[in-house]
Each structure stands twice: as structure tokens, then as C-alpha cells.
Amino acid sequence: MSEVISSAALLEVWQGNRRLTRRVIEAFPEKDLFEFSIGGMRPFADLAKELLGIAVPGLTEIVDGDTRPLSEDMNVHSKAELLQLWDEATEGINALWPRITPERFSERIALFGQYENSVIDSILYFIENEIHHRGQGYVYLRALGIQPPFFWER
Amino acid sequence: MSEVISSAALLEVWQGNRRLTRRVIEAFPEKDLFEFSIGGMRPFADLAKELLGIAVPGLTEIVDGDTRPLSEDMNVHSKAELLQLWDEATEGINALWPRITPERFSERIALFGQYENSVIDSILYFIENEIHHRGQGYVYLRALGIQPPFFWER
Q1: Is the pLDDT of residue B1 over 60?
Q2: Share of chain A above pLDDT 70, in %
Q3: Which residues of A114-139 are buried (b: 16+ CB within 10 A; e: fewer)?
């Protein structure tokens, strides 16, 4: 079986995507970040909080094996606070990542006590979920008449 | 360097995402698939055509090395035609994939004559671009009052 992505490259895929998501957060006007939505979906700040609730807590569970419930309940009321949490998570991810041993990627876990999957598939899901929600954010920005960052910019 | 994703697993990530995108195409009413949009963005049929213009033509270039320009110009005027092209591309991808040699993934190419990148990063880009555009499609469906398929369904 040929393996095509290294652990280090996968981290860079994730952090590259997180840098783009950070630009999307920045592109929102303060009020719209927390209030604007389409079709009953959540405002982008809530989507970003979901991503924050998954990233470091999920990786911590992957590294130390302790299950904890998913929490997206964060005391965040401004773009500056959200961006600060985002940057802290960037550092947190970089610190935790090297502690995922090569064997660990193929082990099965019950993430947040409920999502049974291999570690690698859980991490791919983190990234896919982020790209998915960021795609929502692009539509919000366009609907607000704001040019989003280029998708290929990382 | 520990490698964490095999070629076969990456194909399954892509095809799992493509199955979900297919469900999103199916969820659109015929007329809205080709006409509905938000904020001046393209209707979902045009996004799907972009994905079709990338997948098999891009993989063909990766396999045989012949550069060709990107074309999203497809003679498609119904959901049934679009789904048929989608299914043909599913088969096409499955047929081309085993022809990507392990060494090929790390080689640099100028995809469609312009996007310089390694083969693995090009393929990851195909998948990320699809998730991104499908995220747009989710907002279109919600704005139309239609429940999209579950994101985690593959």
C-alpha cells in the first residue's frame, strides 16, 4: 500500500486551511460576523466556535485518550476575541500534533464520546468540516456585497 | 517521516465526498439547479460543471502527462444529464486512479498548463475545492427551504 501524505504535510494542509478561515473571519463586519445568516443557518461566528470546539479539544482527546463532550459554548463577543482564540488554537494544534504517534493514526476512537472512527478519518473530518463551513461563510460574504479572500490563498 | 494516508484511502475520501455532492445535486429542484444563486455567485449546476471539468481531465493529465486547458463548457441542460456525467466521472476516476504511480504523487506538474503544484497537492485541491463549492450549495438549498443531506453521510 503506497502512502501518499505524511503527518507533517497533513498538519500543513490543516493549518493552511485555518489561515484561510482566519481571513474569512477578518473579512466580516463585526456585527454581521455574529448576526448575519441565510436560510436559518448559524452566523459565521458560531461556525467558527464549532471549529474551535473541535480542533484543540479533539486533538487533545486523540493525544491523551481522555474522552470529553463536545462544547461550542465559548464566551466570545467580538471579532478580536474570536481571532485571539483562533491564534491560540493554531499554537495548540502545533504543540499537540507531534504527539500523535504514527500508530495512533489508524486506531479507532469515540471522539467526544460519540463519533466512532479512526484517528486519521477523524482528523480528515475536522478539515472537511472546516472547508464546508467556510464555504458557507463565502456565500454570507457575497450576500453582504463583500469580496471573500481567494480560495487558493493559504 | 510517517505517512498517514494511503493512495487507496485518499481515493475513498474523494469518492465519498463525490457521493455527497451527488446527493446535493439531486436535492435541487430542476430549475433552481441551473438558475438559483446568491450574491452573484454561480448556480450549483455551474459549480458541478467546474468539478467535472477538473476531475477526470485533471487526473488524465496527472496520469499521461499531457497538459490541456481547463474547460467547464459542457452541454448539460438537465439534472439527469448532469447526474449521468457525474456517474461517468466516478467510473473514470476509479479507472485512472490506480495508474498514478507512488512516485508520481510527489512530482510537480503545471495542471491545465497553469497551476504549478505537486500531484498530491493538486489532488487535495480538487477535493477541497469540491467541499468548498458544495458548502455553497448547502446555503442555496437552505435559502430555498430545502433540507440538505447530512454532511457526514458518505
Answers
A1: no
A2: 99
A3: eeeeebbbbbbbbbbbbbbbbbbbbb
Beta strand A115-118 with A108-111 is: antiparallel
- Please provide residue B72's backbone torsions phi and psi, each rounded to the nearest 5 degrees: -110, 15
User: Of A34, A32, A42, A30, nearest to A80 (Cα)?
Assistant: A30
Residues of B in contact with A139 (CB under 8 A): 38-39, 41, 135-136, 139-140
Q: Note the CATH architecture for domain A7-102+109-143.
A: Up-down Bundle (1.20)
Assess whether pLDDT exceeds 60 at residue A66. Answer: yes
Q: Where are the domains of chain A?
A: 7-102+109-143
- Name the minimum distance, in Å, from the CA of B83 to any CA of chain A: 22
How sure is the predictor about A1, in pLDDT bands with cuts at 50, 70 and 90? Answer: low
Q: Is the pLDDT of residue B2 over 70?
A: no
Single-letter residue type at B31: K
Looking at domain B7-143, which of 1.20.120.450, 1.10.3720.10, 3.30.465.60, 3.40.50.1000 is its CATH number?
1.20.120.450
